[in-house]
Amino acid sequence: MLGGGVTKIGEHWSKSLRDLFVEAAFKALEDSNLELKNIEAIYIGNMSSGELQGQEHLGSLMATWLGIPGVAAVKVEAACASGGAVFHQAYLAVASGLYDCVLVGGVEKMTDAVVHDVTAALVMADDAEYTAFTGASFVGLNAIVYRYYMEKYHVKQEDIALFSVHDHKYASNNPYAQYPFQVTLEKVLSSPLVADPIRLLECSPIGDGAAALILCSEKFARENGIRPGVEVAASALATDTISLMDREDLTTLTATVKAARKAYKMARIEPQDVDVMEVHDAFTILGVIHLEDLGFAEKGSGWKLVKEGEIEKDAKIPTNLSGGLKARGHPVGATGVYQVYEIYQQLTGIAPNQVEKAEIGLAQSVGGVGGTVVVNILQRVR
């Protein structure tokens, strides 16, 4: 990996979908000391441009607006995991030898749409005919998981809600975070109910943003006299049944377990070798469950890592030091790319909340309520 660039996440009323993507792309090129002529293919992660902007065919659109029509370009969609999935596809393209230098990015524009339309777009992450048809919302589906987890493992809500406090603590030092301020547990628990038991301050916000990265082959780096500081050690994608009603256990995202196992094997590491991690905490309960499914805690005890401070910057497994989806923001199709960029920052020593001597980082991206999960592992080149 040669470099990356992102936009600040927020309400970008004066910028279009294409404006955001192009901005992030040129930042990535500048960071990588490359020019457009070096790019052989473009991979774009996005979930809802067709629904919210009335615009599909993002591959050709972004190639045109970048000024390189003719280059191979395609959109990748996997619901909220679109960013992780697009990185996976770009990695496969380079690792296969098909391309030597690609631009991979994600973009989402959500704030200029009415809430009803955004809600309708997000629930498409589940089965539209059998789940969304009933009137269930995406928050409602996660509320079912939240309630079931508390009852199954006898966990108090305040112990799960701490994940939001953790995220905001670190977002307060992140220059591109949507909500860079701290919150108290009392404020989280007194915020309005969205879908019982989920409180407003336990939910990731609606936001606009774009992130981009440059991936290249060893051959390209060698021929151009480049020594990349970070390499992709593993990229694994797995799926589960799309709807909760078909799951054996609502408190385990089987796709996370499968993708993580594949990624650890590919990278030849164990969970304890990971120095820093970004997980897909669209809701606080998911952050807790991911700590378990990724192999850092026993089932029903992920909340203890949060409560005992084990996911802090200088602790056992530093997690979501960007502020996570909750506070950094969640521009859906771009989120997975933001996560990989944040791991890249950590491994190159330029992160706002830097982990000392971080060498291996993991980014986990989730589509729907675990229907698709991507685990990407990066390592610092020694």
Walk me through this protein's architecture.
This protein has 382 residues and is α/β, with parallel strands linked by helices. The chain has helices at 17-32, 49-52, 58-66, 82-95, 115-122, 138-153, 157-171, 185-190, 218-223, 254-267, 284-293, 302-307, 324-328, 332-348, and strands at residues 3-6, 41-45, 72-76, 101-108, 193-195, 198-199, 209-216, 230-239, 276-278, 360-367, 372-380. Helix content is 38%, strand content 17%. The strands form 3 sheets. It has a 5-stranded mixed β-sheet with strand order 1-7-4-2-3, with helices on both faces. Strand 10 (360-367) and strand 11 form a beta hairpin. Helix 4 (82-95) crosses helix 14 (332-348).
The total strand number stands at 11
* CATH topology (level 3) name of the largest domain: Peroxisomal Thiolase, Chain A, domain 1
Strand content: 15-25%
Could you say how many structural domains there are in total? 2
Look at the structure and name the CATH superfamily of the largest domain.
Thiolase/Chalcone synthase
pLDDT under 50 segments (min length 5)? none
Structural class category:
alpha/beta
Q: What is the H/E string?
A: EHEHHEHEHHHHEEEHEHEHHHHEE
